[in-house]
UniProtKB/TrEMBL annotation:
PANTHER family: OROTIDINE 5'-PHOSPHATE DECARBOXYLASE (PTHR43375). It catalyses: orotidine 5'-phosphate + H(+) = UMP + CO2. The active site is at residue 85. CDD domains: OMP_decarboxylase_like. This is Orotidine 5'-phosphate decarboxylase. SMART domains: OMPdecase. Its EC number is 4.1.1.23. HAMAP family: OMPdecase_type2 (MF_01215). The gene is pyrF. Belongs to the OMP decarboxylase family. Type 2 subfamily. One of its GO terms (molecular function) is orotidine-5'-phosphate decarboxylase activity. Residues 6-255 form the Orotidine 5'-phosphate decarboxylase domain. Pathway: Pyrimidine metabolism; UMP biosynthesis via de novo pathway; UMP from orotate: step 2/2. NCBIfam families: pyrF_sub2.
């Protein structure tokens, strides 16, 4: 991450973007779009993050394109964070872990986004599988959408839900060096919510995935403000902010390079 800069490019093939790129809102368009993004930014950015929903909306053939996209990005030497936000009771979580975190599974990238809102302990099968296979998790903590506050800022005995999630992640990462592989999702759009919820991001000792850069309005100033002394742990994530520069590969690369420079200045300066 330090060589390439702290940017993750989201692969979110919205129907509107497919249209803007002159592609059909169908499986052929989805495939062309996703592989063009990988071709353009693979090997140039720290990670890509295919958003599973935009593949699943095309049915099983769309899921096959997600598999192909994961394989292509991995072949290009780029880390893949599969943004599927899975979360369920433990026994079902075990099946999600087999799908997204098992060696040899075509849906397995390098990390998976997961939801702790069925209780952090329900994620144990995913945490165990990730640890056993050298993969990572990004646990939703303080999400970039304004509605997240209703749940994430709620307090029990004075402790916010977000702070409690961060403390659970910290426990799983305890003693890991240079850091553990249980990360958090903390939106770059959340203003002073880290302080407001009493969430100790540095103590997590894990990576922080920061969506919300670009289309949702966050930039360098917001990244620096939100993350403060935890900024070295951050991987900034932008999807539409980069993808809107397509379909031209050089323009996509230029957009990814500019977003990388902006994130680097905010987070590594
Ligand atoms: O808190 C969160 C968690 C995940 N996301 C996802 O990131 C991208 C953002 O796309 P943009 O086009 O850069 O807005 C998208 O896949 C979301 O599902 C998030 O935005 N916030």
């Amino acid at each position: 991450m330090d060589d390439l800069g702290p940017l993750c490019v989201g692969i979110d093939p919205h129907a509107s973007l497919l249209g803007d790129w002159g592609l059909g809102d169908d499986v052929a368009g989805l495939r062309e779009f996703s592989l063009r993004v990988v071709d353009a930014v693979g090997g140039r950015v720290a990670a890509v993050k295919p958003q599973a929903a935009f593949f699943e909306r095309h049915g099983s053939a769309g899921v096959a394109v997600l598999e192909e996209t994961i394989a292509a990005a991995s072949a290009a030497g780029t880390l893949v964070i599969v943004d599927a936000k899975r979360g369920d009771i433990g026994s079902t979580m075990g099946a999600y872990a087999e799908a997204f975190l098992r060696d040899g599974s075509p849906l397995a990238g390098d990390a998976l986004t997961v939801s702790p809102y069925l209780g952090f302990g329900s994620l144990a099968p995913a945490a165990e599988r990730a640890a056993a296979t050298g993969r990572g998790l990004f646990v939703l903590c303080l999400t970039s959408n304004p509605e997240g506050r209703q749940v994430q800022h709620a307090r029990t005995d004075g402790v916010s839900v977000a702070a409690s999630i961060a403390a659970h992640a910290a426990a799983l990462n305890a003693g890991a060096a240079p850091m553990g592989s249980v990360g958090l999702v903390v939106g770059a759009t959340i203003g002073d919510a880290v302080r407001g919820t009493g969430t100790d991001l540095e103590a997590v000792n894990g990576p922080l995935l920061a969506p919300g850069v670009g289309a949702q309005g966050a930039g360098a100033a917001e990244l620096a403000d939100v993350f403060g002394s935890a900024r070295r742990q951050v991987l900034a994530s932008s999807s539409r902010g980069v993808l809107r520069a397509g379909p031209d590969a050089a323009a996509l690369r230029a957009a990814a390079d500019a977003a990388t420079q902006e994130a680097r200045a905010a987070l590594r300066g």
